[in-house]
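Q: Could you predict the 3D structure of Thaumatin-like protein 1?
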Amino acid sequence: MALFKLFFALLLLCTCTYGAKFTFVNKCEYTVWPGILTGSGTPPLETTGFELPQQSSRSLQAPNGWSGRFWGRTGCKFNGTGPGSCSTADCGSGQVECNGAGAAPPATLAEFTLGSGSQGSQDFYDVSLVDGYNLPMIVEASGGSSGMCAATGCVTDLNKYCPDELKVSNGDACKSACEAFGKPEYCCSGAHNTPDTCKPSVYAALFKMACPRAYSYAYDDQTSTFTCTGADYTITFCPSIPTSQTAVVNDTPTTLLIPPRRLLKAHQSRVLNSQVQ
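A: Sure. Here are the predicted structure tokens for Thaumatin-like protein 1:
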């Protein structure tokens, strides 16, 4: 009887603390080093960063109420003889583990706030390009109920379409307009720090056209935040041809390449005219 009570208590404990399983899948043609930053006030996961070779996967458990973000680092060199670094989305720790440090922009981010575990408590999640973009990534929910439980992310390789003024080094990543220019209207800061005063720029429009379900600027909530209850999540880097579930992630116009170029050309003309005047 005592053993049964102990087993039941442990079962209840597991039921109450279990939040979600995150599975990371690397379909890139190169190694990716996922980084993890846990939000304030929630317990950290078992690792804050790890190596994920091509065509491999790894799963991590997160408790109820956990919040944080994931991203993929690329071009990393960790040889064990001293501090290492990554060419994109480096967290600056000098190690494979990020140890509480976030990604240096530009970085494609997956952001989560899990439900508390109470009945009907929803998870909130999104993929954000507000800090720029470094590689394709999608998030898929499985086994959930209630809420949209939709796939989100960015399948398009934005590095191929990145304007010259936003490119990083050899085109390994694409900056946000905020990082590139630092102006309040691009950063949603100062007098532009409300939904009414901060509108999507021509650069945000480019990101949004390529990746309709990802955040393109700070107040892009209505089309970019998703909910689900009781789900597990798969984060895939460099996803291949979308499945039936993920096909809508990049439900973009067939004229994808033409409008951004026109938008950028018009923007550059306005900038040139203002400089002449």
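Q: Anything worth pointing out?
A: The CA atoms of residues 185 and 192 lie 6 Å apart.
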